[in-house]
Structure formats: C-alpha cells, structure tokens
C-alpha cells in the first residue's frame, strides 16, 4: 500500500488499509484508528452508488484524485488556505440535476460523468478541446485554490496582472462572453488553451494544470532506463523540487515531442497536443516561481 506520510509503497497490515479498499480499490494506508486514508477523507460527498456503473466511475475519479494529491505532497503545498478554507471534494452524479465541475473556496465539485470515456470524449469534441481528462480536471480546479494562496495579496500579484491580465474584471460576464463566442479562433502564441482566454483566473488554472502535467511526466521519466547527461539526471532526482525552471523545460520539450511521435506511430492522438510559446513559457515560469517562493517562506517560518 501507499504511505502518503513517507511518499512510498510499503507492506502494511490489513487493518491499516483504507475502508474504501474493497469498493474502489484505494491503495492508501490509514493513520492510527482512522477508517479512511488521507485521500478518501477529503471526499466529503460521494456519488449515488445505486448502480455498478457509478461505482466503477467513482473508482476512476478517486484514482485520479490520489494522483493529484501525490503531486501536491511532492510539491510541499498545503491543503488549507491562509483564510482557513480546506480542500475538499464533492463527487456528484447528475441523474437528477445537472452538475457543473468547478471550484469554490477550496471545494472542488466534479461531475461523475467525466469519468465515463464516451461522455468525456463527446464533451471534449463539443467544446473543441484537444485534451480533456479526469486528472486534467483535478489539476485545473486545484489551480484556482492555489491562486489565492500563491498569488493573491503576495508580491506575485503585480507580475500576475502583467502576464495573465487583470483578474478584477467581472468573472461571470467573462465566462458568459466566452461561451457566447461564435469565432473560436484565439491567440495560440499567448495562451496554452482556448479556455485560458476566458479570464485571467482560468488562464492561471490552465497553466497551473500544465505545470503539474510536466512535473508528473518528468517524475515518471526518472524511472526509465534512459541515457541522460549529468544535469538531466540531477533534475530528475526530484522534478517537484527543481529550482531551475529552464532545466525542467529543457527536458520537457524533447520529451513531449517524443511522446507525440510515439503516439502517432501507434495511430493515436498526440499525448501532449500543445505548443509552449515564449508567452506561455513565461506564465509557467511564474507558476514555478510562486511555488518555490511559498516553499521558501514555509521553510524560514518553520
């Protein structure tokens, strides 16, 4: 089982397994007399489990959520804001009412239908998105939570306005305008995705998600039997704690191209169908700087 306190797989007694192990295959261990692991305890609302389909989809959702929490633990980011808002998850099924995936004051709501490959692909095509995954949803929504922690009322707020735009513009009006557009073209040199153009907060959340995509993939690369130079091996020792942003991008650029070529050789869509332009690179760099600065503040305060 996975021990989140040591960030490692370990052999534990059966009574240290999460109570959700049987129903959704949770492989995280519990602490002390707790019944649920750190990940499952963050899910405050589970979907209606009256069908085997919902159980299967919930299993997929929780697997993606555990990957997100692994990212955050490796980055050293907390699950509570300065104002006391705590990260929590509502996983809801829309048999009765439509469910919108989103974030509010630390609570991430996810529509269970996003775990259905057919449903998610239909929505990806309908919204003209090159990429739409469960893990991508989680990484995007948690980005909204960390904007408040890493940027709002910090020294990074002014650079944020300069690079991402003025976040004080009316959010609801901006989102309504985005979905009302008839012209779906956008400045691909300035934004990582079309949805990033809707509002500076969404641009940040999209960029934050892509930063996690990069770190997680590089972390997986570290375990492969590849021939790398000394600097690359140093970066892959722990990509989550790498202080040199350029070193991360130096590895990511050829890796993402290679992943796309491999997928094309198998007749599949590109694994990473995005271009990191100089402007997007600057936005990713700001995300990295904000995280590194926060970690340093926490270290000095300890």
Automatic annotation (TrEMBL):
Note the Gene3D superfamilies from the entry.
Answer: 3.40.390.70
Q: Which InterPro entries match?
A: UCP012641, Zinc-ribbon_6_bact
The residue ranges of the Zinc-ribbon domain are 16-49
Q: Which domain of life is it from?
A: Bacteria
Pfam families, from UniProt?
Peptidase_Mx, Zn_ribbon_DZR_6
What name does the UniProt record give this protein?
Answer: Zinc-ribbon domain-containing protein
**Annotated source species:** Bradyrhizobium cosmicum
């Amino acid at each position: 089982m996975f021990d989140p306190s040591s960030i490692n797989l370990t052999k534990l007694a059966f009574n240290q397994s999460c109570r959700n192990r049987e129903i959704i295959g949770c492989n995280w261990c519990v602490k002390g007399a707790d019944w649920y692991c750190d990940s499952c305890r963050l899910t405050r609302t589970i979907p209606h489990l009256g069908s085997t389909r919902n159980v299967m989809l919930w299993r997929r959702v929780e697997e993606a959520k555990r990957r997100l929490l692994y990212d955050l633990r490796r980055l050293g980011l907390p699950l509570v804001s300065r104002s006391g808002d705590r990260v929590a998850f509502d996983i809801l099924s829309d048999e009765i009412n439509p469910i919108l995936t989103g974030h509010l004051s630390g609570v991430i709501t996810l529509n269970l239908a996003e775990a259905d490959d057919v449903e998610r692909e239909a929505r990806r095509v309908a919204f003209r998105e090159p990429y739409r995954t469960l893990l991508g949803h989680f990484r995007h929504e948690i980005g909204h939570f960390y904007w408040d922690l890493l940027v709002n009322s910090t020294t990074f707020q002014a650079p944020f306005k300069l690079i991402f735009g003025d976040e004080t513009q009316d959010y609801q009006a901006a989102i309504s305008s985005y979905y009302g557009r008839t012209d779906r073209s956008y400045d691909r040199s300035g934004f990582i995705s079309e949805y990033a153009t809707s509002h500076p907060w969404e641009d940040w959340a999209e960029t934050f998600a892509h930063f996690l995509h990069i770190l997680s993939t590089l972390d997986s690369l570290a375990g492969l039997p590849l021939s790398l130079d000394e600097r690359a091996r140093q970066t892959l020792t722990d990509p989550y704690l790498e202080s040199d942003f350029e070193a991360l991008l130096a590895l990511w650029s050829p890796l993402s191209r290679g992943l796309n070529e491999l997928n094309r050789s198998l007749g599949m869509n590109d694994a990473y169908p995005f271009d990191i332009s100089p402007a997007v690179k600057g936005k990713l760099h700001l995300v990295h700087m904000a995280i590194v600065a926060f970690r340093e503040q926490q270290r000095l305060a300890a």
